[in-house]
Amino acid sequence: TGLFALMYVYFVILSFSDHDKEQKPGSFRSFVGRLGYPLLAGLAIAFLVNIRPGDSVVVFTAMLSYMAYSLFKSKEKKETALKIAVILFLCGCGVGLSMLVNYVQNGNPLEFSFYKYDPTEKWGFGSRGHSPEKGLWHVAFSFMRTSFWTVPFIGIFTFLSLFRKEVKTCLLILPSLGLAFFYFGYYGMGIFEIGSRYFYSAFLLALVPAAAGVIWIKTRWEKYGRAAAQAFIPVLMLFLALFMVFGVYSKFLPYLHSTYMDASKVLRWIIEPPEIQAPSLIFIRNATKKSNAPMFTRNYFRYNEQKHLYALYLMPEENEELMKLFPNRTPYIM
């Protein structure tokens, strides 16, 4: 999620920058600047729509202001409008693919499986006891936690970027603020204790304006004739790298490995369950936490060739209908 969100923001920035103006018209680098980057931005948001739809809506909406401002300030309105149209078209393709998947899986292009099989999982206050106070705590706690798990001082540098007094730099803060507001209204903070799962993308996107804040500090030092100004960024990167390697990764990675090793034992057992007659149809039933069951129903594209086919345990009549579709498979319940 974070990777494609960052790629989308990055390629949108390149799409509307002036770096391609110096290239020779008709050259490959000129083409990349004119349409290559918008194509990559559109593909990135299309992938993001199908990975985490909620995040994609927030990030895409937030970057619309950046594209609108670029169009407003552009001297070549038609070319800028074409770039925006390319991004919008590919985003629409991603939305169409997501709706097609929903239709195939659930019979309704607007119904996601995530909500179909766990309808109590909703966004907003009142869902599972969520409240503004809890939302505020989630934001504050996630900010403190992610400030450690990712790179320190991101929040400070992002704030300092405002002093550059550049409209585009300010607009680049909106995706991170949008994600923070979105998960402010969500009741949970994630399943795995490996950092702030939902706020991680917001911090990745904040790296862009945070870099502008670092440049602002360097520029200020140069303005006042500080001899160490040229060494500021290399020294900062060196110390941050040392802190992350020895202060975070050395402690974080062993715990992460042990956490996923425990989960992999369950997955290996499900992939090759003992004393199961193949071909089989295995219904996965989880009475304590229903949202866990879909994690183990990952079938391959050519599912008919699998030795074991996995399905969610639903209502008895629905299970009977599914078993009729696979009469040659022995049904089991896990």
Quick tags:
334 residues, mainly alpha, 3-stranded parallel beta sheet, 12 helices, 3 strands, 4% strand
User: Poorly predicted ranges (pLDDT <50, ≥5 residues)?
Assistant: none
Number of strands: 3
Q: Count of DSSP helices?
A: 12
End-to-end separation in angstroms reads 31 Å
Judged by helices, strands and strand pairing, the structural class is mainly alpha
Mean pLDDT: 85
Work out the helicity level.
Answer: 55-70%
Beta-strand fraction estimate: under 5%
Identify the strand order in the major beta sheet. 2-1-3
Largest sheet: 3 strands, parallel
| SSE series | HHHHHHHHHHHEEHE
Radius of gyration: 24 Å
Shape: globular
Describe the structure.
It is built from twelve helices and three strands, in the order αααααααααααββαβ. The model has no long low-confidence stretch (mean pLDDT 85). The protein has helices spanning 2-15, 28-51, 53-73, 77-106, 113-116, 132-149, 154-160, 167-171, 174-184, 200-223, 229-271, 316-325, and strands spanning 280-284, 308-312, 330-333. The longest helix has 43 residues, at 229-271. The chain has a three-stranded parallel beta sheet, with no helix packed on it. The chain is mainly α and 334 residues long.
